[in-house]
């Protein structure tokens, strides 16, 4: 894990950007496309109840075959007149076909995206640090040392990937020499405005192909969550059109 040979430093003379919020985590969600799926084989009229994530079973109350409200185990009745309602932190949507669907709230999905593992490398030792979500650049670790977001060069003509291990691609960090940790333990910068965000790859010399490194498990979960979000949005849109 702490193999310095497979990790390179790069970067010089760029300015402050630890406050910059990098959108790479949310980008696949914003641009996300996804197929709408419906896992149940029962017809809407046969659907008598739905189960929430917390185990609560909610009875679907119908009039003329169409769902009009939800009967809760505690005796409450919750109207479906608006097409959707949040119950026990779940989004319940009445579909145009008369089915009642249970989804996670979009914000719940986005919160999970924000917390997916992100890889940093420690300044000096290049030790790996996994964080819950992107924590800015650079990031002060639990040991009060400076950590830089792991990056890769995706230039197909770059030799850097020939040095990669089976476990990780060849990783880079964009070390900004004008940022350090001050006596108070907070980040200090010599410059107020960054002149550029990315320095060239030390192997091929190009900055064009430098990308944030996304862990494989994070990338696959991002794709699943993008699909989930697209599915919820499509269900909402469909419910709104018929409401
Ligand atoms: Zn390169």
What does this structure look like?
This protein folds into two domains: 14-25 and 117-217, no CATH class; 59-110 and 221-242, no CATH class. 16% of the residues lie in helices and 29% in strands. It has helices at residues 27-30, 106-114, 216-241; strands spanning 7-10, 49-51, 57-63, 66-71, 77-79, 84-87, 90-94, 100-104, 117-122, 128-132, 139-140, 146-149, 151-153, 171-174, 179-181, 187-189, 210-212. Strands 2-3-4-5 form a four-stranded antiparallel beta sheet, with no helix packed on it. The chain is elongated. The protein starts with 6 loop residues before the first strand and ends with a helix. Zinc ion (ZN) is lined by residues 153, 155, 158, 160, 201, 203-204, 206.
Round the mean pLDDT to the nearest integer and report it. 82
Bound ions, cofactors and other small molecules, one mention each: zinc ion
**How many domains, as an integer?**
2
Main-sheet strand order equals: 2-3-4-5
Biggest sheet architecture? 4 strands, antiparallel
Whole-angstrom Rg: 24 Å
For the secondary structure, the number of strands is 17
Tertiary shape: elongated
Helix content percent band: 10-25%
SSE order: EHEEEEEEEHEEEEEEEEEH
Q: Which regions are unreliable across 5 or more consecutive residues at pLDDT < 50? A: 1-6, 11-39
* Class computed from helices, strands and strand pairing: alpha+beta
Question: In whole angstroms, how far apart are the ends?
Answer: 55 Å
- Percent range for β-strand residues: 25-35%
The number of helical elements comes to: 3
């Amino acid at each position: 894990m702490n193999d310095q040979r497979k990790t390179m430093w790069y970067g010089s003379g760029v300015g402050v950007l630890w406050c910059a919020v990098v959108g790479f985590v949310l980008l696949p969600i914003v641009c996300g496309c996804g197929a709408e799926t419906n896992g149940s084989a029962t017809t809407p009229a046969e659907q008598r109840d739905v189960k929430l994530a917390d185990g609560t079973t909610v009875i679907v109350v119908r009039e003329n075959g169409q769902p009009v409200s939800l009967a809760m185990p505690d005796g409450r009745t919750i109207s479906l007149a608006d097409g959707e309602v949040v119950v026990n932190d779940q989004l319940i949507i009445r579909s145009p076909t008369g089915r009642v669907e249970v989804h996670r709230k979009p914000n719940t999905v986005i919160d999970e995206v924000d917390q997916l593992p992100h890889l940093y490398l420690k300044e000096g030792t290049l030790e790996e640090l996994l964080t819950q979500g992107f924590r800015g650049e650079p990031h002060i670790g639990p040991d009060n040392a400076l950590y830089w977001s792991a990056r890769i060069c995706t230039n197909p003509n770059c030799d850097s990937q020939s040095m990669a291990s089976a476990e990780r691609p060849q990783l880079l960090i964009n070390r900004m020499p004008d940022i350090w940790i001050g006596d108070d333990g907070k980040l200090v910068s010599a410059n107020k405005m960054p002149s550029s965000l990315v320095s060239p790859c030390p192997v091929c010399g190009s900055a064009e192909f430098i990308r944030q490194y996304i862990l494989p498990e994070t990338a696959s979960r991002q794709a699943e969550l993008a699909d989930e979000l697209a599915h919820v949005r499509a269900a909402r849109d469909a419910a709104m059109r018929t409401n």
